[in-house]
Write a structure and sequence with these properties.
It is built from 1 helix and 3 strands, in the order βαββ. It has 78 residues and is an alpha+beta fold.
Length: 78
């Protein structure tokens, strides 16, 4: 199965009707999956995806990762 992304709204609900910018592709490595989302996060955000969860063979690797840019300018901000 590999690494896949789950797309979410700001309230944490999963996006069912995926926009064209999203993919259901399974990536062979975590690095490949993260590279893809790093290249497409702006498109996903424009298509009303607020966050993503990385899955490996259906199990959560990390969740959720917001796609909204941080407004913090200091390195100690959360």
């Amino acid at each position: 199965m590999g690494f896949t992304w789950r797309y979410e709204r700001a309230d944490g609900t999963a996006v069912v009707d995926l926009p064209a910018s999203a993919t259901t592709e399974a990536f062979p490595s975590q690095s490949d999956a993260e590279t893809w989302v790093g290249e497409t996060w702006r498109d996903l955000l424009r298509d009303d995806i607020d966050a993503v969860t990385l899955l490996h063979d259906g199990a959560v690797v990390y969740s959720p990762m917001t796609l909204h840019p941080s407004t913090c300018r200091w390195m100690w901000c959360n």
